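Researcher: I'd like a candidate sequence for this fold, 181 residues long. If you have to choose between options at a position, lean toward the conservative one.
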């Protein structure tokens, strides 16, 4: 199967297809003039990028060689990208760095307040099965954090094979199975 087929394109079709960005957590740091002059609050990954060879992919360096206090640039596989004042420097999911204008950053990202929940969700998404456990009230609590109720029977009795929320194959664990442990 080609990448186009996996993404939903059909052979011979040339219609516009829309995509939604997957929710991911990135690290970001806003570069201001003040932060350029003092790197005290730079995250470790920015220090690592600063210490890489100038213009090596992933490096962070002065745009004008030898000019202290000036703007910075990031070397990417696509070439050099200027970091303007107040731009955000983002560390992506593969460790790549790229600049982002403040207005684009504000429209695209929001601060993660509850990092523990996010880490738990990432762990759940790496698992290939979503366990549904019957609670004391007869409702089903999903591993991905949802609640589901049936008028009668279990998810299996109701011919459910996949979690309606995360899409993973589901495994139902009835109350009596929990009690047996």
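Model: Candidate sequence:
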């Amino acid at each position: 199967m080609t990448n186009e087929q996996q993404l939903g394109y059909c052979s011979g079709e040339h219609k516009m297809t829309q995509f939604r960005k997957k929710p991911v957590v990135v690290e970001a740091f806003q570069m201001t003039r003040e932060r350029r002059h003092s790197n005290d609050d730079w995250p470790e990954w920015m220090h690592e990028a600063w210490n890489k060879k100038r213009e090596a992919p992933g490096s962070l360096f002065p745009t004008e060689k030898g000019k202290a206090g000036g703007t910075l640039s990031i070397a990417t596989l696509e070439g050099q990208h200027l970091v303007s004042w107040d731009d955000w420097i983002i560390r992506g999911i593969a460790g790549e760095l790229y600049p982002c204008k403040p207005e684009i950053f504000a429209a695209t990202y929001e601060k993660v307040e509850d990092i523990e929940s996010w880490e738990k969700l990432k762990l759940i998404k790496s698992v290939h099965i979503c366990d549904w456990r019957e609670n004391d009230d007869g409702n089903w609590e999903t591993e991905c954090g949802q609640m589901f109720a049936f008028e009668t029977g279990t998810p299996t009795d109701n011919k459910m094979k996949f979690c309606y929320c995360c899409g993973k194959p589901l495994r139902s664990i009835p109350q009596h199975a929990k009690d047996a442990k």
